[in-house]
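Risk mitigation, structural track. In case the binding assays with S-adenosyl-L-homocysteine fail to produce interpretable data, a predicted complex structure has been prepared as a fallback.
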Amino acid sequence: MDFERINSFLESYVTDDSGRLGEIYEDAEKRGVPVIRRNTKELLRLLILIAAPKRILEVGTAVGYSALFMDSVMRNVNGNNETGYVHKDSCEIVTIELDEARADEAEANFDECLGGERNIKLLRGDAYEVMKSMTAEEYGVFDMVFIDAAKAQYGNYLEEAMRLTRKGSVIICDNILAGGEILESHYLVEKRDRTIHDRMRSFLRELKKDERLDTALLSVGDGMSVSIRV
Ligand code: SAH
Ligand code: MG
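Fallback model:
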């Protein structure tokens, strides 16, 4: 069975977001700006509803779609409590982006969608460097980390994520299948992609072996790993 066809088939059942969020997604797809796949959104939403994180760290903002999506999920559950948040006293997202133009666009999207109630904080710079500079005193502990930036850096991001989380925190990595390329042998992959290919393979091996975590490797979207700190 063709993986892309299966993915598209399942994605045809997903309802797109309404309003500005839906526009941001469509616009990003049109312009070739990376955004999470529709199937990825499905799993991410359910994981947020199950884990009910109060604080999420995202690595790789692009134009802010996934951060706004996660925020919308956190806001719309338990609509019967006072604020409409998963947690009564609201939720927070910290997200990191290297590309200046994308970061500017994300800021504008956050302002437009959230106005005065900005609970998403954008940090600019190389994600690994930014993460290393983050302290638990300043940023608190994260209940969920969504890793979606430079693929060759996932091992580094994971170590920093460990430092910034607690037992029970959920760590998710996107694009672990790299468009299917991860299945190919080292030599069949274009030379410039070989380092990423090899690093992603060893990252997955290490991730599964890591006794600090319990991890499932999934073929959802472009491939996702879901781990819980044990
Ligand atoms: N999470 C976003 C998509 C992120 S795409 C969404 O679904 O809406 C990956 C992003 O990571 C890109 O915008 C890219 O500029 C950024 N990125 C790549 N290398 C990075 C690095 N070293 N540090 C921080 N961000 C990086
Ligand atoms: Mg992604």
